[in-house]
């Protein structure tokens, strides 16, 4: 027989994550559990001998639950005509914590089963809790009252990011992001937002405006240098000042139309020299054929004269429809008329003013 001292509380873990495999958890004894004063009630259950062999079943609608955790309770009333105790509380997985208070209660009295929900992922959940009540006297284990509580709800991060995926190009251009509270207790004027830099880019965030529980930010991804086909990376947004610091993933996707490697070319003033080559790559969903209108421009050393066009010719396909070898025909007139050794270059589509890529042209004498 399982013996329990007064005030000894069984605790179990049950997963609230909607994905992944949960390990079977065993019942754990826990002394001194102190439920939070702001726990939310989610219903009442009456247990009594009139239930016989019937399993008591009840759904507990927890609603929206922050991933930082929240505690609920269900009131359990004893109508059995005898003293009852929570003999066991079991589950098969691991992110809910449940504890009865008190663990033993007389006929006509009630106990509270506290349920703390804490998940690390967004998503809906539906998870059962099995509670078995039994008499508190010797030999009473054979006469039990089983109860199954099904917790239903949705786990949400305390804040949400919009857009959920940020599209960026190769240029160091700012993009906008909004941060909004999901539970009405988010004050964007008091929170500080940081995006730690990584090996992919240095990220700067500037708050533009605040409206209600939403803050708008301007982001710069400086030094972002991805080849085509490497479509998505995840950065971390840290929100400071919201209770304990929060972390939220930020998905950043590469949507620039074209990539050239290397980022600089070496040319010779000698027209008979072998022309330099670049490698042009495009997203897998596009065809390389659509990029034949790509033009190159080199800036004249006398900036008042603007940009001088040079030729780019697709020489061959390195891999079908996503990488091509591009032969550069330098602007020899420009190179011969100056002693400059480095030129700023840019690429653009024919008829378009907006450059899609920048690079350097290094002149070899």
Keywords:
single chain; 365 residues; mainly beta; Immunoglobulin-like; 3 domains; eight-stranded mixed β-sheet; 54% strand; elongated; disordered N terminus; DUF1573 domain-containing protein; DUF1573
- Structural class comes to mainly beta
What number of structural domains do the residues give?
3
**Average pLDDT for all residues:** 77
Helix content: under 10%
Beta-strand portion reads over 45%
Q: At CATH's second level, what is the architecture of the largest domain?
A: Sandwich
The CATH class name of the largest domain reads Mainly Beta
Compute the number of helices: 1
Give the total of beta strands.
Answer: 27
Fourth-level CATH superfamily of the largest domain: Immunoglobulins
What is the molecular shape? elongated
Major sheet: arrangement of strands? 20-22-25-24-23-26-27-21
Radius of gyration: 33 Å
Reported by name, the CATH topology of the largest domain is Immunoglobulin-like
Largest sheet: 8 strands, mixed
Distance N to C terminus: 94 Å
Low-confidence stretches: 1-30
H/E element order:
EEEEEEEEEEEEEEEEEEEEEEEEEHEE
């Amino acid at each position: 027989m399982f013996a329990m001292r007064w005030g000894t509380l069984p605790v179990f873990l049950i997963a609230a994550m909607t994905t992944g495999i949960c390990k079977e958890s065993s019942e754990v004894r826990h002394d001194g559990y102190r439920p939070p004063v702001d726990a939310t009630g989610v219903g009442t259950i009456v247990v009594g001998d009139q239930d016989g062999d019937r399993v008591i079943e009840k759904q507990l609608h927890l609603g929206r639950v922050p991933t930082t955790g929240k505690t609920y309770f269900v009131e359990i009333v004893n109508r059995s005509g005898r003293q009852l105790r929570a003999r066991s509380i079991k589950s098969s997985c691991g992110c809910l914590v449940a504890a009865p208070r008190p663990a033993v209660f007389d006929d006509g009295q009630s106990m509270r089963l506290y349920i703390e929900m804490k998940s690390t992922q967004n998503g809906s959940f539906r998870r059962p809790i099995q509670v078995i009540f039994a008499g508190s006297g010797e030999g009473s284990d054979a006469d039990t009252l089983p109860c199954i509580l099904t917790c239903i709800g949705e786990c949400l991060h305390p804040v949400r990011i919009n857009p959920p995926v940020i599209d960026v190009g190769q240029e160091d251009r700012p993009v906008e992001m909004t941060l909004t509270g999901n539970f009405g207790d988010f004050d964007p004027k008091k929170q500080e937002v940081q995006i730690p830099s990584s090996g992919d880019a240095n990220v700067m965030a500037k708050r533009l405006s605040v409206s209600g529980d939403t803050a708008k930010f301007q982001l710069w991804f400086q030094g972002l240098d991805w080849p085509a086909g490497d479509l998505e990376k995840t950065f971390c947004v840290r929100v400071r000042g919201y209770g304990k610091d929060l972390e939220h993933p930020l998905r950043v996707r590469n949507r620039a139309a074209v990539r050239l490697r290397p980022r600089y070319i070496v040319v010779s003033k000698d027209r008979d020299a072998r022309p330099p080559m670049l490698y042009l790559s495009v997203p897998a969903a596009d065809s390389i054929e659509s990029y034949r209108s790509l033009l190159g421009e080199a800036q004249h050393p006398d900036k008042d004269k603007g940009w001088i066009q040079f030729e780019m010719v697709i020489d061959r396909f390195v891999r079908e429809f996503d990488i091509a070898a591009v032969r550069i025909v330098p602007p020899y007139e420009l190179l011969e008329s100056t002693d400059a050794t480095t030129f700023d270059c840019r690429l653009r589509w024919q008829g378009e003013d907006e450059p899609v890529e920048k690079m350097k042209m290094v002149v070899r004498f």
